[in-house]
């Protein structure tokens, strides 16, 4: 440990253990709710807070598992719904799970499949049994139950698996339906716990629901915490709600959650969202945005998103981001590829290589941002880091988003002060 870094002494009071998970709280910001911790899973150690890239079909589009490893990724997402359809449970059982299928020996988190049912399939119907939908392949009626979701995720062999929950967009005005979804999610968690066949090697996380109703969220927190799962997710967000409302929900939930369990906010990936959410006390995040935006020719940097299709980059021979240590930006003399903005611009419109290169860079950027956040928390200079982050991202304080200013002020960081 470096000299001058403040770290909590290891003791039973700051370590949580379950059969397949150990979570050690390493440091807490003295101003905000930000935390740094070590999450030990069956396929290796994960430093929190963390961003998790989404490998929907057991791969990140356009890059190999080896290239993903080179970014420093220790935990990525697979999609239960898609893997259940193809290659299917029989193939997963035959090969021994998704780790072997994709040649990935690090950790995997899988969602339950419920969100995809509702968001991708317009004809999905939620009943107490589960999610009823029509097969996208041949139109035959299908049913995803909590028991089936657990069976699929047991076959996938993910290190972290999510309960099947009743997902409703936060902007829904139907309070009765929102309460039904929240209460059903609790009942479905009970069914998931009962159906989970491998608790000694796979960790089941609960998902807190309740829309934007803070009291409903608190009620759900109490019910979910009583089930004592190894980790806790805050779900149903990133669905079109105002960012200020999002922050209120996250802050309300983290205030109730135990220190010693990892906290996962689902579907979050914009850099400023990550920074603010860590300040509010969250540890884990995932989103398709960094990889999806790469396929549109966009590179993520500390100064914002650069559209490499813009003709102004045609004669720009600098890397996507100066001083970036990803394999794309790093000079050839340092073992990298030394790729320039001009090269990516040249290929961005028609060639897939640009999307591949930007995917590597963007994933590295997200992971490195979380590494910087973690280091700042451990050294107890997180508020200073946050101010510098926003100063890099926006040319003037007048441009700072009001929701971020308000949320950070609520945990002790005044972005507008000198």
UniProtKB/TrEMBL annotation:
<feature type="binding site">
    <location>
        <begin position="111"/>
        <end position="115"/>
    </location>
    <ligand>
        <name>substrate</name>
    </ligand>
</feature>
<feature type="domain" description="tRNA-guanine(15) transglycosylase-like">
    <location>
        <begin position="32"/>
        <end position="391"/>
    </location>
</feature>
<keyword id="KW-0963">Cytoplasm</keyword>
<dbReference type="GO" id="GO:0002099">
    <property type="term" value="P:tRNA wobble guanine modification"/>
</dbReference>
<feature type="binding site">
    <location>
        <position position="361"/>
    </location>
    <ligand>
        <name>Zn(2+)</name>
    </ligand>
</feature>
<feature type="active site" description="Proton acceptor">
    <location>
        <position position="111"/>
    </location>
</feature>
<protein>
    <recommendedName>
        <fullName>Queuine tRNA-ribosyltransferase catalytic subunit 1</fullName>
        <ecNumber>2.4.2.64</ecNumber>
    </recommendedName>
</protein>
<feature type="binding site">
    <location>
        <position position="209"/>
    </location>
    <ligand>
        <name>substrate</name>
    </ligand>
</feature>
<keyword id="KW-0819">tRNA processing</keyword>
<dbReference type="Pfam" id="PF01702">
    <property type="entry name" value="TGT"/>
</dbReference>
<feature type="binding site">
    <location>
        <position position="236"/>
    </location>
    <ligand>
        <name>substrate</name>
    </ligand>
</feature>
<feature type="binding site">
    <location>
        <position position="324"/>
    </location>
    <ligand>
        <name>Zn(2+)</name>
    </ligand>
</feature>
<dbReference type="InterPro" id="IPR004803">
    <property type="entry name" value="TGT"/>
</dbReference>
<dbReference type="InterPro" id="IPR002616">
    <property type="entry name" value="tRNA_ribo_trans-like"/>
</dbReference>
<dbReference type="GO" id="GO:0046872">
    <property type="term" value="F:metal ion binding"/>
</dbReference>
<keyword id="KW-0479">Metal-binding</keyword>
<keyword id="KW-0328">Glycosyltransferase</keyword>
<keyword id="KW-0808">Transferase</keyword>
<comment type="function">
    <text>Catalytic subunit of the queuine tRNA-ribosyltransferase (TGT) that catalyzes the base-exchange of a guanine (G) residue with queuine (Q) at position 34 (anticodon wobble position) in tRNAs with GU(N) anticodons (tRNA-Asp, -Asn, -His and -Tyr), resulting in the hypermodified nucleoside queuosine (7-(((4,5-cis-dihydroxy-2-cyclopenten-1-yl)amino)methyl)-7-deazaguanosine). Catalysis occurs through a double-displacement mechanism. The nucleophile active site attacks the C1' of nucleotide 34 to detach the guanine base from the RNA, forming a covalent enzyme-RNA intermediate.</text>
</comment>
<feature type="binding site">
    <location>
        <position position="329"/>
    </location>
    <ligand>
        <name>Zn(2+)</name>
    </ligand>
</feature>
<feature type="binding site">
    <location>
        <position position="165"/>
    </location>
    <ligand>
        <name>substrate</name>
    </ligand>
</feature>
<keyword id="KW-0862">Zinc</keyword>
<feature type="binding site">
    <location>
        <position position="326"/>
    </location>
    <ligand>
        <name>Zn(2+)</name>
    </ligand>
</feature>
<dbReference type="GO" id="GO:0005829">
    <property type="term" value="C:cytosol"/>
</dbReference>
<dbReference type="InterPro" id="IPR036511">
    <property type="entry name" value="TGT-like_sf"/>
</dbReference>
<dbReference type="GO" id="GO:0008479">
    <property type="term" value="F:tRNA-guanosine(34) queuine transglycosylase activity"/>
</dbReference>
<feature type="active site" description="Nucleophile">
    <location>
        <position position="286"/>
    </location>
</feature>
<comment type="subunit">
    <text>Heterodimer of a catalytic subunit and an accessory subunit.</text>
</comment>
<comment type="similarity">
    <text>Belongs to the queuine tRNA-ribosyltransferase family.</text>
</comment>
<feature type="region of interest" description="RNA binding; important for wobble base 34 recognition">
    <location>
        <begin position="291"/>
        <end position="295"/>
    </location>
</feature>
<feature type="region of interest" description="RNA binding">
    <location>
        <begin position="267"/>
        <end position="273"/>
    </location>
</feature>
